[in-house]
């Protein structure tokens, strides 16, 4: 497939390149007016800009302490040095001497973004292509949309390809990925460093696309408070935080805490998502009915409903088996807000489908509240030897308000039967019901189905560091990280549902699974009839919800136990220059268990399941080494490698890189590495590990229905590997100007892909992996992961520029960060296609494929005068072709437009020592609506439907 650039895309490209080069042009003009010497030390890279590898950094300034990064050079002389974490290396080599490009965001930059959760910072990283979780993307799933959760996803290679660290250490992936919101209160963040390069040689598995490392402030003294209220129409949110730090020369402790709340937002609250999204068939309500015999009245006459003769309809259209399927007689009425679509041979009623829309009742985001506590403590037990401890606890309660009931997934040869004895049955004979237990109008006092999630996550770290002698240092630590996730959903218990259809409904009816108990009489006393017919819903007894919705509970426990030790120092001197090395070992034990309530394991739930209780564990043993040598002044060569043994397989990840400061104003860097991801712990087991429900198009009859997709593990899976390459340069031609350009490339080999259910049924509609019932209807598709012949391949160019200058007493900064996607090859398992400029939601697109806009850009201007500052940011993502459920290789004409938003804010510090501050601002100040997309309304990887967000943040420090 070849993508032909749209003319408007070319215009946008020119505009953005112009934006990226604007600082250079301004700097040139400034240089013509001044003869100042070349730039000296420069400050750390601001938000969204690559850290310069060419010059020594100026002191990194925190709230209370100024730390010279030079203290972290090869021969540190004080214990404060290990606090300077260099992401991507085990050597104390200054970041500006590293070859891997890094995006650095410090606390000051973070505070100027207006975000109130760590996850929201990803929108200021153009190299992050969408996220799992967070804003719901119905077409791709992508995580726990019933929770407030968000992943990193660098280069669009999937959340599992970005390693997320807290202070350089792994965190348990509670959601199948690390939830960025669970790491630490934002008030405690000193800086965030994102390595845009393969880092498996340093950190092992999962660091294919790069590393997202959150570094906390361990040296804070005093008390700091912050509160932010954000107004979003129909979905306000708030965040309250505090941090306290105290200690002396030997002991220091910093504790931070945060409370965050967000209100729910439903599709019905936004025009872009509040549209008629038709469903029919097993997902319908008003539903459809299978007539097994000729309808008749009590007197034996024809059944006439709304003037239509259903007895004659049966006589004329019954099939060889003596059955005919008809839609609810009330389909198409105003009361049901449904649409009757007649079949080609329909007489104008009965035959066809009933389309309706639950769209408005689905959520954009859930209601959620969370608590987060974090502590860092250090104690010098002897000169040059320090113990350190870290503790974190995260708790979240969330509520997802969704459609009243799930679609009917498992139908079988005999779906639920509405007996002739049911007084609501107008056909006078037994009929089978196919549809949703609760219709689009809801049920009395039950307008939404509530999913409730509880997450408890904790992390403990205990370790020591110090000097060995001769410039050698050691660090050793043990980490225990655990998450407990409980999800309570609601589904239809088919046994109880059938009982209500038979007249034994209600919580007080003496009905057992073996049948009615003593005194239970159908439709009498405490025993109630339920009607599936749309005209009756509003008048039914509310207590019948007992038969329609039952709680189903799933519990997941994920544990990491990690021990690690590293020593580093000068190995020897060559030509008067030190060869510095680091060697280390790591042991990691992973555990995962899932348990489900009886209804989910029995298979009697109408939509979810069947699931199986599972428990897995594995051990990972690693050794790694790194060496750095300055060949000549300004030319650093770095080599690293890591060996990991998983028992069933092992892998080696090497990396070689170089950084050359040709002159103080020009640096060139290059790196080449091999990175890898191991199969997940459950994916390597030969058991049923997951049951999901997706829309499937059955090739036999072209119907689109919800069907179970059962995922089995594959013990033959091998690690997926990737070749990673980066070459770039940083230029500092005049004081205040920084320009950085990088070309990057990732190419997977043996990429782990999950079989696409649609691809499985397309390949062999009646094969062993498609389970059909006695009528031939597909009920279940069996899939498993596999190593694709090749895998995703992607490349592009990043351009980052900044220019800082003074106008009188004001300091002004211009910044731009542009990411251009040159290639994004997607491997479906049978064909590889070019996905640049596409949504990548073809029928057979793998779940790892992300929307691939060609351009992503972030541009900003900051201005400050004394204690006042103001800033504006422009966020831009180019559009993509909307290939939703299209066949790979067919022309795609639909398009999802570009997304562009402007954020503005201003702040003021005041009071004694400027200890108080207030910041006000707007995100998406012009209230831009995201471009429309098929099925979902919008595409979450391009834009969001929140609209304008206004906020105020108050802070104080004592």
From TrEMBL:
Please list the residue ranges annotated as the TonB-dependent receptor plug domain. Answer: 96-211
Q: Which UniProt keywords apply?
A: Cell outer membrane, Membrane, Signal, TonB box, Transmembrane, Transmembrane beta strand, Transport
Q: Name one Pfam family in it.
A: Plug
Q: Keyword Membrane on this protein?
A: yes
Q: Which InterPro entries does the entry mention? A: Beta-barrel_TonB, Beta-barrel_TonB_sf, Plug_dom, Plug_dom_sf, TonB-dep_rcpt-like
Identify the stretch(es) annotated as Disordered: 31-81
Q: Where is the composition biased (Low complexity)?
A: 45-71
Recorded hits in PANTHER family, A to Z, give:
PTHR47234, TONB-DEPENDENT RECEPTOR (PTHR47234:SF2)
- In Swiss-Prot or TrEMBL terms, this protein is called TonB system transporter
Which species expresses this protein natively?
Sphingomonas metalli
């Amino acid at each position: 497939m070849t993508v032909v650039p749209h003319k408007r895309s070319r215009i946008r490209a020119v505009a953005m390149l112009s934006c990226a080069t604007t600082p250079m042009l301004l700097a040139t003009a400034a240089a013509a007016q001044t003869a100042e010497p070349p730039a000296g030390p420069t400050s750390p890279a601001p938000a969204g800009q690559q850290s310069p590898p060419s010059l020594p950094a100026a002191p990194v300034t925190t709230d209370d302490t100024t730390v010279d990064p030079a203290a972290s050079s090869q021969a540190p002389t004080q214990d404060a040095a290990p606090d300077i974490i260099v992401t991507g290396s085990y050597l104390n080599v200054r970041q500006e001497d590293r070859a891997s490009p890094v995006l650095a965001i410090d606390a000051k930059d973070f505070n100027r973004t207006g975000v109130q959760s760590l996850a929201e910072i990803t929108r200021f990283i153009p190299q992050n292509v969408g996220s799992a979780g967070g804003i719901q993307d119905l077409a791709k799933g992508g995580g726990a949309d019933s929770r407030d959760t968000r992943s990193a996803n660098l280069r669009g290679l999937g959340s599992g390809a970005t390693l997320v660290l807290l202070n350089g250490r792994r965190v348990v992936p509670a959601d199948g990925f690390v939830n960025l919101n669970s790491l630490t209160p934002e008030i405690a963040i000193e800086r965030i460093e994102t390595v845009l390069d393969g880092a498996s040689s340093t950190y092992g598995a999962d660091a294919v696309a790069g590393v997202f490392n959150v570094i906390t402030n361990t040296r804070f003294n005093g008390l700091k408070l912050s509160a932010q209220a954000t107004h979003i129409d129909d979905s306000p949110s708030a965040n309250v935080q505090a941090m306290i730090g105290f200690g002396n020369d030997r002991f220091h402790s910093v504790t931070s805490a945060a409370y965050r709340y967000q209100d729910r937002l439903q599709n019905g609250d936004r025009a872009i998502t509040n549209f008629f999204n038709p469903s029919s068939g097993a997902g319908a309500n008003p539903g459809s009915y299978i007539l097994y015999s000729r309808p008749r009245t009590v007197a034996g006459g024809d059944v006439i409903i709304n003037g239509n003769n259903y007895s004659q309809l049966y006589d004329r259209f019954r099939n060889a088996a003596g059955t005919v399927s008809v839609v609810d007689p009330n389909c198409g009425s105003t009361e049901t807000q449904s649409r009757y679509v007649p079949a080609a041979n329909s007489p104008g009623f009965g035959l066809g489908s009933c389309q309706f829309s639950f769209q408005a009742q689905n959520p954009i985001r859930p209601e959620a509240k969370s608590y987060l506590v974090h502590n860092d403590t250090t104690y010098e037990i002897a000169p040059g030897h320090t113990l350190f401890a870290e503790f974190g606890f995260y708790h979240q309660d969330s509520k997802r308000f969704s459609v009243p009931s799930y679609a009917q997934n498992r139908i079988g040869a005999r779906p639920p039967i509405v007996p002739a004895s049911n007084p609501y049955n107008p056909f006078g004979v037994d009929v089978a019901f196919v549809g949703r237990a609760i219709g689009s109008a809801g049920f009395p006092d039950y307008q939404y189905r509530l999913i409730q999630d509880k997450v408890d996550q904790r992390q403990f770290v205990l370790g020591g560091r110090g000097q060995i002698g001769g410039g050698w240092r050691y660090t050793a630590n043990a980490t225990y990280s655990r998450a407990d996730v409980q999800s309570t959903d609601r589904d239809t218990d088919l046994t109880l549902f059938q009982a209500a259809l038979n007249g034994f409904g209600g919580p007080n009816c003496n009905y057992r699974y073996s049948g009615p108990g003593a005194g239970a009489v159908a439709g009498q006393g405490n025993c109630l009839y339920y009607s599936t017919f749309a005209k009756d819903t509003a008048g039914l007894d509310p207590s019948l919800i007992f038969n329609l919705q039952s709680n189903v509970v799933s519990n997941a426990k994920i544990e990491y136990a990690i021990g690690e030790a590293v020593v580093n120092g000068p190995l020897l001197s060559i030509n008067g220059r030190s060869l510095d090395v680091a060697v280390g070992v790591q042991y990691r034990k992973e555990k995962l268990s899932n348990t489900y309530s009886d209804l989910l394991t029995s298979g009697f739930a109408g939509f979810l399941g069947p699931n199986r209780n599972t428990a897995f564990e594995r051990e990972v043993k690693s050794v790694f080494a790194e060496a750095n040598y300055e060949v000549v002044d300004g030319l650093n060569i770095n080599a690293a490698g890591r060996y990991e043994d998983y028992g069933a397989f092992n892998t080696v990840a090497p990396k070689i890189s170089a950084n050359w400061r040709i002159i103080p104003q020009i640096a060139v860097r290059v790196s080449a590495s091999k990175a890898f991801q191991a199969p997940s712990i459950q994916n390597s087991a030969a058991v049923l590990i997951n049951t999901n429900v997706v829309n499937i198009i059955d090739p036999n009859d072209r119907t689109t229905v919800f069907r179970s997709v059962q995922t089995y593990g594959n013990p033959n899976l091998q690690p997926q590997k990737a070749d990673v390459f980066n070459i770039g340069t940083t230029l500092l031609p005049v004081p205040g100007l920084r320009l950085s350009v990088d070309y990057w490339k990732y190419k997977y080999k043996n990429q782990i892909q999950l079989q696409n259910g649609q691809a499985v049924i397309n390949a062999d509609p009646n094969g062993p992996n498609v389970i059909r019932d006695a009528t031939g209807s597909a009920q279940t598709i069996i899939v498993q992961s596999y190593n694709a012949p090749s895998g995703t391949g992607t490349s592009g160019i990043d351009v980052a520029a900044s220019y800082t200058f003074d106008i009188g007493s004001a300091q002004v900064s211009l910044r731009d960060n542009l990411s251009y996607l040159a290639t994004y090859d997607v491997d479906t398992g049978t064909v590889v296609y070019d996905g640049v400029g596409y949504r990548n939601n073809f029928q057979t697109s793998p779940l790892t494929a992300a929307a691939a806009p060609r351009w992503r850009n972030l541009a900003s201007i900051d201005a400050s005068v004394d204690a006042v500052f103001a800033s504006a940011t422009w966020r831009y993502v180019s559009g993509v072709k909307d290939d939703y459920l299209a066949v790979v290789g067919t022309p795609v004409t639909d398009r999802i437009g570009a997304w562009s938003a402007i954020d503005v804010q201003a702040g003021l510090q005041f009071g004694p020592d400027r200890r108080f501050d207030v910041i006000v601002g707007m995100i998406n100040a012009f209230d831009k609506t995201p471009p429309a997309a098929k099925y979902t309304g919008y595409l979450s990887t391009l834009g969001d439907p929140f609209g304008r967000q206004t906020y105020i943040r108050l802070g104080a420090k004592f």
